[in-house]
Amino acid sequence: MTTETKSIIIVSIVSLAILFGGAWLYQRNAPSVAPSVLTENQEALVRDSSMKLSPSASSTKVTVVEFGDYQCPACAYIEPDVEKLKADYKDRVTFVFRDFPLAMHKNAVKAAQMTYIANEQGKYWEMHSKIYAGQKEWETLSDPADVFVSYATALGMDTTGLKEKLSSDIYQDRINKDVADGKLVGVDSTPTFFVNNTIIRRADYNAIKAAIEEELSK
Q1: What is the mean pLDDT of residues 2-12?
Q2: Which of 5, 39, 100, 160 could anchor a disulfide with 67, C-beta 3.0 to 4.6 Å?
Q3: For residues 160 and 177, is the Cβ–Cβ distance under 8 A?
Q4: 46 Cβ contact list (under 8 Å, min separation 6)
Q5: First-to-last C-alpha distance (Å) of the chain
Q6: Tell me, which fold does domain 35-216 have in CATH?
Q7: At 2, is the pLDDT very low, low, confident or very high (cuts 50, 70, 90)?
Q8: pLDDT of residue 179
Q9: Distance CA 162, CA 181 (A)
């Protein structure tokens, strides 16, 4: 390979990196799309079996629902904002997570299955957070099972038979139901948030907080 050819290849790689990097930064920093209101299929937002983080009160005035994908970079990026909102409104708001794994993300379904396996031992939200925090560790692996087992170990879970469960499809129906419900309420990208019936796309902390405050004031 000549020096000239090497130079052309290097320039091409750098150009592509700048192009995709700039697109990603734009996506992260783009202003939020104006919220809209869900008027149909509202019952599909939260099911009895949905994963909920609720205050001790039996009911709350506001429910925040996120349709997310564990392998989605934008979902991982906003997760600290979601955690802050949970801390800020822990006594007043119910938070719900619904799985919406995108076809382009080959490990997203297995990640979702891992959270449900963790739920069997009362560790759903802990695993949820750990999987998002470690996204860069497992997103490109051909099989993320070993990484997920290490998370389970760190959380003090019994890991007996965990890999076998991960390789099965015991929670596939549940994940499919979340995806179907997401499509019913107009989800086509992740993350998509609903604050009661208000739809927020390209969300950030301030956009979700504003919607929560508006609902609390009613």
Answers
A1: 46
A2: 100
A3: no
A4: 52, 63, 65, 96
A5: 69
A6: Glutaredoxin (3.40.30)
A7: low
A8: 98
A9: 28
